[in-house]
Amino acid sequence: MLDSHFPYVLPPLPYGYDALEPFIDTETMHYHHDKHFATYIDNLNKALEPYPPLQKLSLVELLRRPSVIPERARAAVLKNGGGVYNHSLFFQKLAPAGGVVHEPSGRLATMIDRQFGGFDAFREAFSQKALAVFGSGWTYLLLTPRGKLKIESFPNQDTPVESGNVPVILFDVWEHAYYLKYKNLRQEYVDNIWNVVRFPEF
After folding, report:
1. Last residue of one domain, picked from the residues 63, 92, 121
2. Which pTM does this prediction carry?
3. Would you state the pLDDT for residue 102?
4. β-strand pairing of 149-155 with 166-172
5. Last residue of a domain, one of 39, 60, 92
6. 3-class DSSP assignment, residue 171
7. Domain harbouring 119, CATH code
8. Alpha-carbon span 165 to 148, nearest angstrom
């Protein structure tokens, strides 16, 4: 999806809508993927429709080079393109509980141990960063070009694309990601989502 071009198409979930139960409920997955994610895709296509030169750029290229976007379309392209980017990664980096090991392994585990003092300390630091997001946003674990790990939050639909950092995992802390099940209890949602995070292998 990140290397795709206009017109963007809603990708299917890589698992069933009920696959993340009981940690993320089926109804939330339907609304989050089929409504919220789809709306960002539709709005990005509408924003790009009048601009054939922009249609040739991939999603990452659009987000990395905002200066090439005409000013009157820039806000809509960046907002909706960011929504497509963040949601695409979010759904990819989740997996059914029991389907994979939901703790880092190999080089990533070694890096986390070295930089954070172990997985439990990392998990606490990441969770606190996610809980501290004011309003809507995202919290990422990023791999920097220098090979260091970094926890960073982004408001609304901002992304780490321009920094050149590589996403490792991310949490969506917009209310629509959890409100149907957890209501205003963001901490309970953050505590539970660790059960379905899919850590990559380095």
Report:
1. 92
2. 0.96
3. 80
4. unpaired
5. 92
6. strand
7. 3.55.40.20
8. 10
